[in-house]
Every structure is written in C-alpha cells, then in structure tokens.
Amino acid sequence: MSKKTFEVSNIRSSDELNQLSIALNKKEQVSHIKIGKDNISFYCLDIDALKGVIHGINKNFVVKEVVDGVGYQYDFAKPIDKEYYFIIRNIITEDDIQVLVNRLKKDDRFHDIEYNAQNRLLILSTMQRNPLQIIRKMMKKINPSVEILEHRKPIRSQDVFNQRFLNTYIRIGIILVFGALGIVSSRDNTFLTPISWFVCIMVISLPIIQNAWNQFLQKKYLNESLLVLAGMILGIISGAYIETAIAVVLYQFATPILIKVMQKAMNNITEAIQRPETVVKVYKNNEKKVSLYDIDIDDVIKVLPNDVIPIPGIVEKGLSIISTYSNTSSYDHEVVKKGSEVNSGDINVGENPIYIKVTKTYESANLTRLLSIASTASLYESKVEKYTVLFSRYYTPCVAALGLFVGVVLPIVNYELFSPYIHIGAILLIISSGLATDYSSSLVVLDGLAKAFVDGIMVESSIGLDCLNATRTIIYDRFDGVEITEEELALFKKLSHLGKSFIVFNDGPVALEDDQYTIYNDLTLGQKLKILDEATGPVVYIGDSFKDIELLQKSYVGISRGGIADSKVVENSDIVLIDSSLDRVYETFAIARQIRTHGFINNFVSIFMKLCIFVLALSFIPLPLWLIVLIEIAVDVVELYFATYLSSKKHKEKTK
C-alpha cells in the first residue's frame, strides 16, 4: 500500500498550526510534512487513522487528498485568503455593527465573517490587499463616528483565558509542592522521595504521556513520546531525580523551538522565491509603486533597464532593446519603440526605460504562468529521505530493544550495577528516535527547488532534480543551425567532467569532432532515439524544440532550455530553463548534487552524534540525561537551520 498526499487547510491561527504540526510529527505513518502559512500537507498510508487527531484540535479543519502527488505549493498565481482581525471603537449602538456585518456577508470579497460583541472584535477572511480601507469606507456610510482598527492577533475573552490557563496553574502548583517534598525528604532516604519525584516528573510530562497514550491506542508502540517517557521513568528509578526533571523540561521545550526554527527555514525559502509584487504606475506624469494585482487594462507602467516586463502591453513611450528568450527561445534581441508589442517575461536589456500600456491583467500574464511552473511543483520523497526512513525503521527498534534489555533485564541479573545499568538504558531509549532528522531531509529538497527557482530553473517535480544524480549519461542536443560558441565549448568541458558519459547531438552548420566525448553530426530523429535507447544507464536529455518532445519523454530526466515558447515542450519536460545563459545547464546539475550532499551531511551528523552517545553510554561514562536531550536538540536545530542554506541570504552573498 503506497502513501498518498493529504492536505489540512482552514487553519485559523499560529497556535493551531503549531499544535497540528506537533501532533502529526508524532505519527510514524506520517512523512514529508510541509508547513504553509495556513495549511499543512503530508504523506500517509491511512488518513482515517489521523482524522481523530486532526479534528480533535479543531473540528473545522478541512482534510483532503491532493491528487498527482502535489505537496507543499507556493501558489503565487493568485492571491490567497488571509484572516484579519479588526477592533471596533466608539460604538453607539450595536445596530450599526450589525448593518456592517450584513453588508460584508453580501460582499463576495469577504468570507467567514464573525463579530465578537464582548470584545468588539470583527473577524473575516479575504483576498483583498487592504481590507481595512474597504471596511472603513463601508462604516463611514453607516456611522462616520465609529472607529475601526486592525489587530494582528485575535483577542480572547477573560473566560477563554482562564479556561486555557487554569490547568497550567494547577500543574505548576502540583509540581512545586511535590518537587519541594522530594528535595526535603531526600535527606531521610525514605520511599517518600522517589514517590514525590515520580509525581512531580509525571505532571511535568503530562503532554508527553497524552501523546504516548494516543499512539499506544493506535498500536504505535515505538513512537517517540513513548520511548522518551520510558527513558524518563528509568531515570527516576535510577535515582537521578533532578537531572530527569531537567531532561523532561528541556524535551518539552524542544518541540516549540524546533517548530520556530522550521518556520524560519520555510520563511527563508519563501523569501528566496518571492517575486516582486509591485510595479511603477504612471498617471498624469506622476509615478507611484502599486501592487501588480491593482493594475488594470489601459494603465501605463514603467519598466526600467534590466527589469522583467511583468504584464504584456503596447509600448506607449521610450526606445530600448528587449530579450524575448523566455517566450520565443530566440537569442536575438529586439528593438522596441512606441507601438511595439511586448510580453510578460521579456527583459528590458537596453539602457532606457520604457512605458507600457497594459493590455492584460497580471493574473493572465505569461510571467505568472511561467513562475507557477515551479511554484506549484510536485514534491516527492527523495532518495535521501527514503534512506533516512529506511534507517529509522531498523535503528529505532534495535536501539529501543537494547535500551530495555540493559535498563530492565541486566539490573536483575547483576544487582550490584543496578543504578548504572538503568541509567544506560534510559539514555538508549532517549536516543532511539530523532526529533528532526526526517523532515530536515524534506527541507533540503525544498531548499534546492527554491535555489533553482531563483536562478531561472523551473523544476516541475522534485523527482527531476533528485534523479539527475542517478543518471549515467548526458545527451546534449545543440540548437539547430547555430554555430558553435566558446560558451558552448566551455559548457561541454564542464558537463564531460561530471563523471558521466557525455554525448553531443550536433545539428549546426559545421561538423564537430572531439576526443574527450562523443559527437554525432546531423542525425535524424530515429537515429537519436536509437542512441538514447542504447546509452549506458539512465539518461538525461537536454533539448529545446518541438521535435525533441519524444526524446524528452523517453529520457530519464528531460531538460528543455527554450523557456515557455512552446507549451508542449514545457509539458513534457521535467526541468525548464528560462534563462538564455548556458551556465544554467551546468548549474542544474550542481544544485542536484548539492541537495544530495547536503542531505547526506545532515544525516551523517545526526547518526554520528547518536553513535558517540551510544559508545559513551556503553562505556559507563556518566552522562546526565539532560545533557543527552540538550545534544539531541542542538543537533536537530543545526540540521534544520542549515537545511535551507542554499536559499539563505548568507549563501546568496557568498555566491555573488
């Protein structure tokens, strides 16, 4: 039974997002979790087993299967609904607010409208960029004296506040009482000491116990919460009361810390691929930066030198040169002047600005479609992730079984080493499962996709980049009828040094020869297909035109370098190169290797640290439990932090 991709949406707050991500991370059947701003997607075998957990957090969560393996998406092609909170002041009568609410409900631009009369809080969802301005205009017509302010986070009533924190206050009280009792009675060496510490630590561990029990009911006997809880119980039995209590506290702090680091990592990726959403609008000789979504047909926009034309139109004023490669796959530049037609995705490579009268909306522009190729790329489990899951499948039960044997059986056999054996067993149980290794591998893949996106490499599926590392032959099909250039010869030299067989199909006007790699001149399509079929191992084919479609389809990985000039070529390619620079071809392979290397290093560091702790523990070196938990947290934070190194600002600055 294969895993399917599911998405949980309609998540209204960061608290719910964090709570759901924590719950899903505890599920062994869940993998490849991707956290969005208001949704979470993941792979799992049986969604019915998870619905109770998901709807237990919020019954209004929407759970749906995502078809064709589409996972985490950056859908920039259209605005996304966002939840807003507004405080209402100077209310004379509630009737005015009710009139406003009724008008908002009739307006298709607003959804999920609620009004909390106790806190005078208006909650709604909308795609609009500045809903406050729209609502204020509505309210002004109803009652101009009413003031409306936007609030960043929802306000909870006093009852909700007390209900949420009452249990916390009770837990703190119990912890303080039994903790103090354990410290005071420790001098007397009576049964009261372990009992007091046991109650204290179990109250601290209440969230861990709840997660462990839920997993146990679902027959998930090797879940992380249960293993950690067993380790902590052995720590109490061994007499290490204070260090066990500290370890429990550190462990519970680990999850929110890791979530914040993971969100920071996702923000790095989002910022890296965030495209410009503003443009200079010209109206009556006045220039103003506005949102691309606010540009209407017949508006005039200004495009500066080296800027991409975001919306198609007619040149209203100016004389310049543009590159049309992304739309035509032609290297020839065009001179544009008043009356010339330009398309989104064209680049102003001249020295003068041009003023364009818009003929289409931004949503229908070619540039939006072009960027959406990669921004909605399907995410599949990479080989690094598969190896990580395979390692965990055998590592966790073996180390956990050894921990139980050392911590439970050996103390009975050799009572003289009762406490050391139990302590070692506790350590082994704690390190038997990782906190972040699995999803740091997913972040590495997503980071590579973001890096490719920024560099004009549109990856239609994560399989495209991942499989490049497995290919053994590269076939490069040259541009038809174009003479060889020094840039192309330099590219051939780089590709031939990748440790793979390198073949060139030359359809240029001059025959080529080279002893370092294989060159075929003036082949028919049938001859090219035969060579591809007979090539060693998986083949990556690099082409550019409509006649290459069959070669792109039959290759293990198909790369097209003609932009989006031909939609059929794009549809049949795994990777689309938008930039006309031939360096992008080699860079695609470089990014694929970086993903593999980075994922391997992350996993190696985690396994190496666990192995060091394992050896030290079995050597009877006294390692406090809190130190073990702290090391685990530190390794996981480092893994998650460096998982998005390719798209980070520091890496960009280094590569410039």
Largest sheet: 7 strands, mixed
Number of strands: 24
- Based on the structure, what is the oligomeric state of the protein chains? single chain
> Strand order within the widest sheet?
18-24-23-22-19-20-21
* Proportion of strand residues: 15-25%
Walkthrough of the structure:
The protein is 49% helix and 17% strand. The protein has 22 helices and 24 strands. Strand 19, helix 16 and strand 20 form a beta-alpha-beta unit. Helix 12 packs antiparallel against helix 13 and helix 14 runs antiparallel to helix 20. The chain is flat, with a radius of gyration of 30 Å. The protein starts with a strand and ends with a helix.
Set out the fold topology.
Elements: E1 4-9, H1 14-25, E2 31-35, E3 40-44, H2 48-57, E4 62-65, E5 82-89, H3 94-106, E6 110-116, E7 121-126, H4 131-142, E8 147-151, H5 158-185, H6 192-204, H7 206-217, H8 224-237, H9 241-273, E9 278-283, E10 286-291, E11 300-303, E12 313-317, E13 320-323, H10 325-328, E14 333-336, E15 341-342, E16 347-348, E17 354-358, H11 366-375, H12 383-413, H13 418-431, H14 437-454, E18 457-459, H15 462-468, E19 473-477, H16 486-496, E20 501-506, E21 518-521, H17 525-534, E22 539-543, H18 549-554, E23 557-560, H19 567-571, E24 575-577, H20 583-618, H21 625-642, H22 649-655
Parallel strand pairs: 19-20, 19-22, 20-21, 22-23, 23-24
Antiparallel strand pairs: 1-3, 1-4, 2-3, 5-7, 5-8, 6-7, 9-10, 9-11, 11-17, 12-15, 12-17, 13-14, 13-16, 18-24
Helix pairs in contact: 1-2, 3-4, 5-6, 6-8, 6-9, 7-8, 8-9, 8-13, 9-14, 9-21, 12-13, 12-14, 12-20, 13-20, 13-21, 14-20, 15-20, 20-21
